[in-house]
Amino acid sequence: LNAANEVAVAAFLNRALAFTDIAHVIEEVLSNAAINPVSNMNDVLDADATARVAARERIARSPLLHPAAA
C-alpha cells in the first residue's frame, strides 16, 4: 500500500497524475498484488519493489489518468 501510494503521490506532484486518481492507482495495485507470506525482510522489500513497478506501469499505460495539459 505505502509503495503504491508513494509512487502515485510523486506522479501527482510531478503533474503526471490527477489528485483524484491517486486512490485508483493504489486500488488497482492492491487488487492485482499477490498475497505471499512474509518470512524475512527480503520478502518485504520484494513486495515493495513489485508494488512500485506496478504503480508506475499503471500510471504510464493509462492516458486517462493524466490531467489535461494546461
Give an overview in words.
The protein is elongated and about 35 Å long. It is mainly α and 70 residues long. The mean pLDDT is 90. The longest helix has 21 residues, at 41-61. It has helices at residues 2-13, 22-32, 41-61.
Which class best fits the helix and strand makeup? mainly alpha
Which band does the percent of strand residues land in? Answer: under 5%
Shape, please?
elongated
Q: Radius of gyration in whole Å, from Cα?
A: 13 Å
Quick summary of this structure?
With 70 residues, the protein is an all-alpha fold. The protein has three helices and no strands. α1 runs antiparallel to α2.
Structure keywords:
3 helices, mainly alpha, 0% strand, 70 residues
Can you lay out the helices and strands and say which pair or pack?
Blueprint: H1 2-13, H2 22-32, H3 41-61
Helix pairs in contact: 1-2, 1-3, 2-3
